[in-house]
Each structure stands twice: as structure tokens, then as C-alpha cells.
Amino acid sequence: MFRSSLRATALAAVAAAGVVASPAVAQAQPPEPMSAAARWSLVAGMGHFVYDEPGTAGHRIWFGVQAVTATDGSTHGHFLYRHELPDGSLVGQGRADVTCLKVTGNVAVFTAIVPEGQGTVKNHGYYVKIIDGGSGPDQIVDAQAQNGTERPPTHCLDPETDLPPGNPQRPRYPILIGGYAVHGAE
């Protein structure tokens, strides 16, 4: 029930955003056989997972995202993060701007960059892959760039396949609480 209401809410938000964001474009385009929502790519939801990697085993992570890519390729959205130690102590939390979103089937890959001056890290980027599990659990893969001398890349990087050579393969984590809706343009 949560997943279906989340999908309906996300699709309604996308349809509304399309009307508000670009009414002239919507009116100028000839009717297409697909629905208005099918012309957009989106990812929306909030999920919790727990790292099991050496040095971060038991760290609890919450990621929230609401992002849309229009047919013209423009992406808009926000990403929220919270990182807790196993005892519940806060390591960090904040928000980032989604700069890129690509959806293929039930998989969303997006990039979110922390704005300058927000938070304690400099030049911080999140590279996230969400696999919408349908009626099963969703899965998530993430990688981060932080404290570099330059702004991190803003284009989409798949954390499973686009990591620089020498970095370990990133694991997929099941979403334990919450979930995500992924919808791709057709």
C-alpha cells in the first residue's frame, strides 16, 4: 500500500510540475499517444539502509530524494541525507541538489551535489543507484566524493560501473524501511 500510494503521489507531482514548469512548451507540442506522466523520468521516496562494510558496519543511512527529468533533459530535485553511527549518534545530515537523473526500467541513477557553504564538507557529491524492487524490497548503491579541491562531477555516474579504476565494487543494500518510486520516460 505504501509503495502504490508513493507512486501515485510521485506521478501526480510530476504531472503538476510539468504544467507549472512549462505551460507554453506543453501547449506548443502536438498530442502524443503516451500519457503526460510517461514523458518524464522521476525518482521519489525515502529509504533507510545499514552499511556492512569494514569501518562503517552498522552505520545507519537515510536517503530521501525527489527528482524529475523533463523531456528537454533538464533535471530538478532535492536529495536529503542522514548518517548515524550504530548507537544513533549523528555523523552528518543535510541536503544536496540533484543535477542529473537517468532512469532505465526500474533503475534510477542520479547525482546530487551539496551546495557550497552548506554542511561541514567541501565539494561533496553523492552518486546513487536505486533499484525499484516492485513488490519486493528496493536496493540502493551509493558512492561519494568529498573534500576535494574542485567541485565533483555533476553528470550521472553509476556507482557500480563508473567508479575510477582501483576502487572496490560498491555493494547493493536492501532498503529496510521506506522505499522509492522510479518511473522512466518511454
TrEMBL record:
Highest taxon, organism lineage: Bacteria
Keyword Signal assigned: yes
Descriptive protein name: Uncharacterized protein
Signal peptide coordinates: 1-26
Region (Disordered) location: 147-171
UniProt keywords, alphabetically: Signal
